[in-house]
Design a protein that fits this description.
- With 776 residues, this protein is of the alpha/beta class.
- The strands form 6 sheets. An 8-stranded parallel beta sheet has the order 17-8-3-2-1-22-19-18. The protein has a 4-stranded antiparallel beta sheet with strand order 6-5-9-10, with no helix packed on it.
- Helix 1 (51-63) runs parallel beside helix 7 (227-253), helix 2 packs antiparallel against helix 3 (120-136) and helix 2 packs parallel to helix 4 (144-168).
- The two termini are 52 Å apart.
Amino acid sequence: RAGGRKSHHRSPSRIVARDGHFRYPGAWRGSGLAAPVFSLRSCDSVGAGDFVDLRTLVDVAHAGGMNVVQVLPVNDTTVHNMWWDSYPYSSVSVFALHPLYLRIQQVVSEAARIAGPEHANRFASLRAEVNKAKAALDLKEVDYEATVKVKMSVARRCFEAVKTPFLNSTEFCEFLAENAAWLKPYAVFCALRDLFGTAQHWRWGSLGSDNSAGTVTRLSQPGSEVYNTVALHYFVQFHLDAQLREAAAHAKRVGVILKGDLPIGVDKASVDTWMYPNLFRMHTSTGAPPDDFDPNGQNWGFPTYNWEEMSKDGYGWWRARMSHLERYFSAMRIDHVLGFFRIWELPAHTRVGRMGRFRPSVPIRRHELEQRGLWFVDRLCEPRVTSSILREIFGDRDGEVAGRFMEETGHDGHHPDGRAINTYRFKAEFSTEEGLLGSDAFKIRDGSPDWLVEETEAMRKGLLHLQHNVCLLRDPEDPDAFYPRIEMQKTSSFNELEGWSKDALNWLYDDYFGARQDKLWRENARRTLPALMTCTGQLVCGEDLGMVPPCVPPVLDELGILGLRIQRMPHDEGEFGRPNRYPYATVCSPSCHDTTTTRAWYEADRHRRARYAHQVLGMQGDGQLASCFPPPMAYRVEHVEEGSGAQRRRTSVGSVGAEDLSGAGADGAGDTGFIERQHPPPDKCEPHVMRAIVRQHMASPSVLAIFPAQDLLALEHSYAQRPAEEETINDPTNNRHYWRFRLHVRLEDMLANSEWLAEIRDMVNESGRQDGKMTT
């Protein structure tokens, strides 16, 4: 060393080099199909699809060259004991499986084997009953209540016939020992739900959540007053677990990934809120803010999470959920992954999703309002109701509305003719959404004339609109904290303010929904999501649709969580998503369970159809349907040894892409009027149209291309004869939607249709997704 001096610099004892999640030498890409289990139809399913049907669905995917089968949540949702429980995202237990998915014939056969030949007549009668029910319930749609009733009735009689040998069997004892932490609370909860006639455990008196652990210990003991019912639920869960694990094992044997779904919430009346009330904010509700698809927002009815309490044991409840799901699934979709950054929280009394705020979030403090001269906080927080507004909304019925629902509070200026402008507030009994919408004021008799129904509904909507006519929301836990009412600029409360007040509120609004939250939301996700990721080896996809904060994509990328791309819900600017532009770390799909099918969406709007065909599918307008859709852009990845980061991959185009033929600019603009006038696209989403859409998604860079079963069935002319609107699984704008869609094609018929499967397989191979490999 110069001058002979010793250096005091020490070499680091440890060097950590990190370049994101694991990278394969070649970019693995797969493909698959998605279907709710209840929607499956086979020769043996009773009323709805079941876990044994999953085996056949796996075989269909495998025969079509695909390697993923994705399903909706399969947890038990039995809260109301009626069709409302068809909603698969409202779990009564985050561990228990739904009896709807039980292949009851297997239960009968196993019980008959255990009972022995002396009970043959009893089980022959049960088999005849099951066959009769199978024929009666072979309907166009699922009859949820009838199907669950039949399966539970037969399961109960099977259990009664073999109760003692079953409960003493080695297989059951091992199952109970492995799953006791959730199985005993679940079974006791179900017994008490049936005993009290309600799952609302806060109505169970001394058996409520204050002493739930002690209640479980006492009532799960053999000989307790409800033990027979408890043991019945053990029996049902044992068989459900065995059937689903067998389907999962079959999928692994043939090289198909079974992908599950992790719901973001649990029902308020659930075993989880009964056992662990400290983990939930029971006075609140979870939902989603207004968007183009639902202007009122969504209110899912789930309590929000007490993240601070959950963090005390390292998010053990979440880790247990994820680990348990790995028992069945090799990949997982996290429902509403945005909720791990921030959740849209609503007061428990709300019914729609408009009057919420993000939690956690940095609020607007009282001093911020005062600094900008906004001293009139009550004016900004209370519903703005004046005689002028009442007249504008209700016309000649303004006086009736004021008398029935309002209290006069004073005056606020005068009309041009000198009359005072009266101000009002809602009467106490109508001051909340629950009080207003649940009142008798809007109840009308069956058979009432249409004009009365319409008038009543218009009044209801008008009053709800008035309740939402505020600029700021108060924090019920902090009197100095406020939140901007989303879309406040659309309210008359805002528009009646002076210009300087509007400017001040707009600045605070933009700051709240923008810059001030980024750090908090990023840190929240970095605390919560790793708890899920570190306890599982599953491939994880996050459903990141809706109002996506800027901090979300980098955090998901950092954690190796795939994003979701639905073509009609683009993440980038433009009307439609462009599959050839999707990032590699995404799952792409033309539609999903929360949208109409691709066929229904394509056929619904003539002008949008023309724009889509021209701009996205590259329809050339030569009038020749067989050639009007060019082949999709062929995506290819070549591994480059040298370099790092983005330089490690080089992409190339192997054929002309649709955008190059469309004439559309980067913003999606183009002369669609010409093609619509001269050579319009087909009115119906015929098989060759769907083929162009599927090929485009297959050719995308996305790591997975997943197609709803309805979209793949539309490739076959004979399968596409069902009215497209009948194939919708969910309507997110209706919180009482009946989830009952059932495929009209049997799984056995799909598996036997070699031409249809060969077409899918050809598109898989063409795109380089065969066996998850990449064309080079």
